[in-house]
Structure formats: C-alpha cells, structure tokens
Design brief:
Blueprint lengths: L18 H6 L1 H9 L4 E6 L2 E6 L2 H10 L4 E3 L1 H6 L13 H11 L5 H4 L3 H12 L7 E3 H18 L7 H14 L16 H22 L8 H10 L5 H32 L1 H15 L13 H13 L6 E5 L3 E3 L2 E3 L4 E4 L1 H4 L41 H16 L3 E6 L17 E6 L2
Parallel strand pairs: 2-8
Antiparallel strand pairs: 1-2, 3-5, 4-10, 5-8, 6-7, 9-10
Helix pairs in contact: 7-8, 7-16, 8-12, 9-10, 9-12, 10-12, 12-14, 12-16
C-alpha cells in the first residue's frame, strides 16, 4: 500500500454528497463520475462507496483477487427479509455449500432439456395475441417468463398464482428504490413500503411452502434438487425456501426486462428484425426452436447480447473489501464498499464503437476489448448461477416470437428506468400487434 493515495471524489452537495444526483438519474451520474478516473470515491447519506470502471480492476475483484472481496453490505441489505438464506445474500463457506446444492439444476446438460418447453410456452403465449391488440409489453413479458420458469425449473403451473410472485418482486423493487424517503430507515420502522413488503413476503413464503409440499426429493426440478440436498442434511429447509424465492423473483424479472428492451429496439430498427426473421426461417423452417438450434441462431444471440449490453438487468455489481487493498494505485480500506457498474462499462467508448447505439452486428466483428468490459451476468465464482438457463430462454423465446408476431412498440421518449435493484422500465412500454 506504500505510495497509494485516496481516489478522487467528484463534486457532491452538502449533507447528501453524491446521493442526490444518484437518486435523480443514476445512469447519467455514474457515467459522469467515471470521467474523473477509473476509481472514484463517493459519499452517500450514511455510507461511503468506491466506483471502479477499469475492466482489469473489475477482473481482479471478481476473479483473480476475489478472496480479498466478499458480498457487499448493500447487497445483503437489499435482500434482507426475503432471501437471507439464499445464495444471493450469503457468503463464505455457507455460500459455497448453497452453490454446490443448486449447481446440479443449472448444468448445461440439464438446462438444454428445457428448450422445447421454453419455445412451446412462448408460442402458446403469443397465440393469444391478435393483430391490432395493444399490449402492456412489460406485463406480457413478465407473465411469459414467469410461466417458463414454472414449466421448467419448478415443474409447476403458475396460472392463477402470478400475482403472488409479481407482488413480492414489486414490493422488493419499491423497498430498494433509491428515491424512497424511508430508504435509510431500519426495516423495523413500519413505513407503508415496509408493511407492503412484509405482507408480500409472507404470501410468497406461503406459496413456496405449498410448492414444496407438492414436490419430492426425486423430482427433476430445482425444488427436487434442493429437497434432495436437504434430505442429505446439506442445507436447511429455510435455505430451500429462500433459494426458491430468489429463483422466482430474479429468474423471471431479469429475462422479462431483457425481452422488453429487445422488442423496443427491434421496433426501432426494423432492418434488424428483418435479418432475424430471415435467419429464423432458414434455421427452423416453420418448426419451434430447441436447444439444438441455439448455436445456429447467431443473429438472435447477437440481439440478446446487444440488449444485455445496453440494458444490463443488474446495472451494477457490488463487493466489500475484506482487507485493505490497492486498486489502480489507490488505497481502499478494509470494509470498503465497491461498485462495478455494468451500465458504465457497457457504454464506455474506450471499448465500444458508437456505444449508445443498438448494433447487434458489432458482435459479428472481432474486437480487442477486455473481458470485463462486458459482464451482464457478473463474473468469477459468484456469477449468476442461472446464466445458461437465461441465455437459452432469451434466444429461444425471441426466435419463437419474431417468427410469429411483429410488434410496434411505443414509448414516451426518452425511455426511463426505475432506480432500484433491477433495470425495470419506468416509462410505459406499449406494443401493438401487427400482421407478420
């Protein structure tokens, strides 16, 4: 640490520090702060944070020096009360134990078997749409991805129970909204937002308990995998419960966000949609896609990649330093809260030509950029365990839809986002179904 100095700090305001700018427009604020240096010090009411925007330093945090960093305090607080016993909110040996218990359900050999059902559910969903229908696109994609999750990983029909999961997800987003006046209050303070959250968590817990009661440790689902681990005394029932809650919430929300933005961009770039349709027709010849078609759907993959670049569902990854460290020549103390924002790296002109433009063809060209200039599923040992499932789902669902429908998406521009734990649209996103 000899010779290391404190990172620069962009200008803030008295009392609020950088919190006011972040609450108003975190996306613009982070990009502006990143112009100061690759490591900057930020002050928010009640806490300090460091933002890192060098891909090589991020690789150190997430991979090569990951032992010096652990789950951040902010992430633990985010999931407090709903995922305390899940892989999303645990660390150390306990996190490793839970990750091992979940891993068999997410191996590619098993995930690829869900492909047919993903496409079948998508085809059935869009079959209900008629030309001229005006859809709430975000709501439609949430319904679709939740049912795909139920049909595949959980082995349950969620028809009629969607509101329980959606309300829990919405309550969590509301609780973690950066603009919420009670954001800094402890959870035991009975604010309206906290009371809503507590009710939604109770209802979700009841629903998950019913799913568990109807499942067994031999079932070929995530529920069955977790119950088998519980039967071997590897995890507790509370850990079974909270990991299923985490899966239900993040497992449908992130995919719904991505499909919503993919359609938004396809509507704005009809030439890209035409290229997609041509590829799908050539590869599938009227059939539904399956896992065996994944590699051949290259243009669809590139649309998904580009959508995840511009609209990463988790727009920032956070860690906490377990000891004093030096990053980029700057000294960070033990306990430092560190944020690595995908939103900034994915739009950094050092690594991307015309970074704010939606251009799936950029993925057809070789590019010499650092690995962690693009990390929509985080990275290192704590990368998203559902990454393979999500990629397969997004590609097969999008291929199925573009082969059957065309959507004219309308948004009151500019497109805005909810400043919370996921990149949900704050703007209303509507779509009119057109003849194909």
């Amino acid at each position: 640490m000899s010779g290391a100095k404190r990172p620069p700090s962009p200008g803030g305001v008295p009392l609020m520090g950088h919190g006011l700018a972040f609450a108003r427009d975190p996306w613009s604020a982070m990009r502006e702060w990143a112009t100061e240096d690759d490591v900057v010090a930020l002050e928010f009411p009640g806490r300090s944070m460091y933002m890192v925007t060098d891909p090589h330093l991020i690789e150190r945090m997430l991979v090569s020096d990951q032992a010096q960093f652990t789950l951040s305090r902010a992430q633990r607080q985010t999931f407090a009360g709903i995922e305390d016993d899940a892989v999303t909110a645990t660390e150390g040996e306990r996190w490793k134990r839970l990750r091992r218990a979940l891993q068999p359900a997410f191996e590619w050999s098993g995930v690829r078997g869900y492909g047919d059902r993903m496409a079948e559910r998508t085809a059935a969903h869009v079959a209900d749409w008629e030309p001229g229908d005006r859809l709430d696109l975000w709501a439609e994609m949430r319904q679709l991805t939740l049912h795909i999750l139920g049909d595949t990983l959980l082995g349950v029909d969620l028809t009629g129970d969607e509101a329980v999961v959606h309300e829990a997800a919405d309550a969590l987003v509301a609780k973690t909204d950066f603009r919420r006046p009670g954001q800094l209050l402890p959870d035991w303070v009975p604010t309206p937002t906290q009371r809503r959250f507590d009710r939604a968590v109770g209802d979700l817990d009841d629903y998950i308990s019913a799913v568990i009661a109807d499942s067994g440790p031999g079932d070929a689902t995530v529920v069955g995998v977790l119950l088998a681990a519980h039967e071997r005394d590897e995890i507790s029932m509370a850990e079974v419960q909270d990991n299923l809650a985490a899966l239900l919430l993040a497992g449908h929300d992130s995919s719904a966000v991505t499909l919503t933005y993919a359609w938004y961009e396809l509507s704005r770039h009809p030439e890209t949609r035409e290229r997609l349709v041509a590829e799908v027709e050539e590869v599938l010849d009227g059939d539904l896609p399956g896992a065996d078609d994944f590699d051949d759907l290259e243009r669809v993959q590139n649309v998904v990649r580009e959508t995840l670049r511009l609209y990463p569902p988790a727009f920032a990854t956070s860690r906490e330093a377990t000891e004093a460290v030096t990053l980029g020549g700057y000294a960070l103390p033990a306990g430092a809260q560190v944020m690595a924002p995908q939103w900034v790296l994915h739009r950094d002109e050092r690594f991307w030509d015309d970074p704010d433009t939606f251009d799936p063809t950029r993925w057809e060209r070789d590019a010499d950029r650092p690995e962690y200039a693009y990390f929509p599923f985080s990275g290192g040992p704590r990368h998203c365990i559902g990454m393979r499932f999500a990629r397969l789902e997004l590609v097969l669902a999008l291929a199925t839809m573009v082969d059957r429908v065309d959507l004219d998406v309308s948004v009151d521009e500019p497109l805005t986002f909810t400043p919370s734990l996921s990149l949900r649209p704050e703007s209303d996103v509507f779509a009119t179904v057109r003849e194909v």
